[in-house]
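Hi support team,

I submitted a single chain yesterday and got back a structure, but I'm not sure I'm reading the C-alpha cell output correctly. Could someone confirm the output below corresponds to the sequence I sent? I've pasted both exactly as they appear in my results page.

Thanks,
R.
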Amino acid sequence: VLGGGQEAMDVTTSSTKQGKFEAKFYHLVFEEEFARVKGHFGPINNVRF
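Hi R., thanks for writing in. Yes, this is the structure output for that exact sequence:
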C-alpha cells in the first residue's frame, strides 16, 4: 500500500482532488498497481483485508 499526500501546512488550502489524497495498491511480485482508493484524507495507520 502506498499513500499519497502533501505537506501538512498546504493541506488546509487544497481539495482532495488537488492534494493527491489516495491509497495505491501494488502487486508485491509484479510491482504493478492493481487498485486505487481516492479521497483518502489523513495518514494510513493500518490496513485490514
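A quick pointer for reading it: Residues 34 and 47 are 16 Å apart (CA to CA). Let us know if anything else looks off.

Best,
Support desk
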